[in-house]
Design brief:
The structure holds 2 protein chains of 2 kinds. Chain A is mainly β. Chain A has no helices and 12 strands. Helices cover about 0% and strands about 55% of the residues of chain A. The chains are: A mainly beta, B mainly beta.
Chain lengths: ~120, ~120
């Protein structure tokens, strides 16, 4: 069975602080893909990043950065100099084999980030 | 362009009504998905269409009936719903058939459904 754990249910930070959202996963697959999505109050799930299991390079996109550590099965997400617009629920997800060659996303429970001005 | 559109944005219906949710994408994607999301929970997969054919049905009650008229459109027909079916219904699409781990799913803004 595959599982994604986001232990932080809610986080509050003051604007301009850095914040890290944790994601730990379990899988028996040797090749797998991990994703982060952002869900603002409007409801749409916004794709942020996809990372495959063979690429452990950290990635930076503006104020966003991701730290993939295969040894600890973690794929953490850091927002630098947080802004009020970063307030949202963030989901980590794992691409899972649902059988018969089909794949579906297994989501973590999400972390609600509130950035206080 | 990674846009998936959904209509309506909000829907209120009684338990005896029949209504439909619509989803559209023009990215040439060949897999489309319906998810249900309750408050403070992650999305739950309901259906997957691959090349306009239903490939996954996650034991969803028959009061939800999906339809994929063509590769760009996905409908969800609703009939005799229960109050517990009130949720955010999200549509998504992905480039390939849903048979690749690499597929990135792009989501629409969702329809907030309230069943009275």
């Amino acid at each position: 069975a595959q599982k994604v754990t986001q232990a932080q249910t809610e986080i509050s930070v003051v604007e301009k602080e850095d914040v890290t959202l944790d994601c730990v996963y379990e899988t028996r697959d040797t090749t797998y893909y991990l994703f982060w999505y952002k869900q603002p109050p409007s409801g749409e799930l916004v794709f942020l990043i996809r990372r495959n299991s063979f690429d452990e390079q950290n990635e930076i996109s503006g104020r966003y950065s991701w730290n993939f550590q295969k040894s600890t099965s973690s794929f953490n997400f850091t927002i630098t100099a947080s802004q009020v617009v970063d307030s949202a629920v963030y989901f980590c997800a794992l691409s899972e084999d649902s059988g018969a060659g089909s794949y579906q996303l297994t989501f973590g429970k999400g972390t609600k980030l509130s950035v206080i001005p | 362009d990674t846009e998936v559109t959904q209509t309506p944005k909000h829907l209120v219906m009684g338990m005896t009504n029949k209504k439909s949710l619509k989803c559209e994408q023009h990215m040439g994607h060949r897999a489309m998905y319906w998810y249900k999301q309750k408050a403070k929970k992650p999305p739950e997969l309901m259906f997957v269409y691959s090349y306009e054919k239903l490939s996954i049905n996650e034991s969803v009650p028959s009061r939800f009936s999906p339809e994929c008229p063509n590769s760009s459109l996905l409908n969800l027909h609703l009939h005799a719903l229960q109050p517990e079916d009130s949720a955010l219904y999200l549509c998504a699409s992905s480039r390939t058939s849903g048979r690749a781990k690499t597929d990135t799913q792009y989501f629409g803004p969702g329809t907030r459904l309230t069943v009275l």
